[in-house]
Design goal:
This protein has 16 helices and twelve strands. The protein is α/β, with parallel strands linked by helices. 48% of the residues are buried. The C terminus is likely disordered.
Amino acid sequence: MPSLVDYAPIVGDSTIEELRGLGKRMAGQRVAMVNSTRVGGGVAEILDRMVPLLEELGLRVRWEVVEGSEPFYRVTKAFHNALHGKQEAIAPEMFQLFLDVGRQNAERLVLDDDIVFIHDPQPITLVEQRRPGQTSRWIWRCHVDVSRPHQGVWKFLQPFILKFDAAVYSSSAFAQQMPMEQVLIAPSIDPLSDKNRDLAPEEIDAILKRLGIPRDRPIITQVSRFDYLKDPLGVIEAFRRVRKSIKCRLVLAGGPASDDPEGEEVLNRAREAAKGNPDIHLLMLPPNSNIEINALQRTSAVVVQKSIREGFGLTVSEALWKARPVVASAVGGIPLQVKHRYSGLLVHSVEGAAYAIKQLLSNPDYAKRLGENGREHVRQNFLLTRHLRDYLLMFLTLGVAEEMVYLNGH
């Protein structure tokens, strides 16, 4: 892991000094981060990079993961889809299983830290163990788009949410009418991670050769879980439309996640849609294939993120950081990253995606300009150092440090 000083050439010395100053005010505070998996997805990636830097700033941080069976994760996947507004059949026994697994995890995890930070719905029932008079601050971090949630699931979760001191969302469009603190904090990428650091040309060449991706034609890439909400079938259809007039290749690259049981099913549907087309490459990458994803994004003529629903879509910021032109759906937190015709192109359909991809492939200068603008937009708004600052400021706003000073008699 890099240290804070390693980020100074990218974000400036003043940013690092500001973080150190905030860290001094939070020194010694105990923080528990709780989510559903250590591998796969943006939440795990962020925590993997953020926890060591919070510790460097003087906080005492532990990262806990809830445990559950495959039926539990099928329930939480259905909840996830329903919160995004997808039609799901939600049966009463699903709520009961969710509560049962929550109680099992509550018996296993003791959460008496100064700050308890719960990520997404899977661990949300842990707030039930909060005791009256406990000085801990409990924060719920919602990474999904709940602007139009399934009302049955939302009403089930809402009593738990209301027991937190604050709820954090990636976009103002996701916030709900609730009598509690609601905070807007966008996710981030780490520019020094293996997924985003600079790669030498020969390193990229070797990785593409190992993955079996020829570089004889422009490459269109989408990096995401194999998930219906990421619409890989729509990406394949858009590619077919582009390929009628421009010779190119498509790469759909994703990886497994322990809390997402649908991945293999969606991958098989994508294989059926590809119908053995040699110009369509479907890659189910093993966990931590970060350098491989980095190389794929850097070698792409266009990076696509054609989500139907999206919490934020960090793969967009990853591509923009590499100065790649991006075509993405105008959903969730994506419009925060892609300013239409400035840092990328926003689309609303398969037809729109195909048209935008052809526009970029046919006009390399325009594509380059969008990519350069996108990199600067990410540098200013979506890097890990900004994310750290926002979290520290939120902790201070919630009065965590001041409360501890009072209790210690200083």
